[in-house]
Amino acid sequence: MHMDFSPTAPKAEDTEFDDFLKVDIRVGTIIAAEEFPEARKPAFKLKVDFGPVIGEKKSSAQITVHYTPDSLVRKQVAAVVNFPPRQIGPFRSEVLTLGFADTDGHIVLFSPDQLVPNGSRLA
Q1: Across the strands, what pairs with 101?
Q2: Which of 61, 76, 85, 89 is nearest to 27 (CA)?
Q3: Which of 85, 84, 73, 83 is nearest to 48 (CA)?
Q4: CB under 8 Å to 87, separation ≥6 — which residues?
Q5: 7 vs 80, which has greater pLDDT?
Q6: Number of Cβ atoms within 10 Å of the Cβ of 11
Q7: What stretch of H or E contains 25?
Q8: 17-109 is classed CATH 3.10.20.310
Q9: Which ranges constitute the DSSP H helices of 1-123?
Q10: What pLDDT score does 34 carry?
């Protein structure tokens, strides 16, 4: 399934607020980031701390254009924490790290502009 994430993508169909609440989006701090050479498309392997309730989770993210592993450590990011894990080659991605495509289609991470407690849920 190919999704269009461009600014000209058609609006998704309307949904109910209760359906939105089923998606658990939390903030966490990246505590480790490394190259993921086995990935088909350039990506990093991330380890993100979501606080005491969710804990530390792993994520694969195709964000190599705007970021380096060193620039990611200590960065807060938003992620969906209640999707089923996905096997990406030899790596098990446990959360979906969120971002938006820039004008060239490269992902820019979605993160708070001020420090918030790890594990905070999107309000």
Answers
A1: 107
A2: 76
A3: 73
A4: 93
A5: 80
A6: 5
A7: strand 25-35
A8: no
A9: 17-21, 51-54, 69-72
A10: 98
Predicted TM-score (pTM) of this structure: 0.93
As to burial, measured by CB atoms within 10 angstroms (0-12 exposed, 13-18 middle, 19+ buried), residue 111 is middle
The confidence score (pLDDT) of residue 7 equals: 83
Measured from the Cβ of residue 1, the count of other Cβ atoms closer than 10 Å reads 2
Nearest one of 6, 22, 18 to 80, comparing CA atoms: 22
Cβ pair 75, 62 in contact under 8 A: no
Query: How do residues 18-66 score in pLDDT, each as one tens digit?
Result: 999 999 999 999 999 999 999 999 999 999 999 999 999 999 999 999 9
Residues in the chain: 123
**Which amino acid does the sequence have at 38?**
E
Measured CA to CA, the distance from residue 87 to residue 77 in angstroms comes to 21
**Range in 10-14, 43-47, 94-98, 106-110 with the lowest mean pLDDT:** 10-14
Q: What is the mean pLDDT of residues 1-24?
A: 87
Helix (H, G, I), strand (E, B) or coil at 52: helix
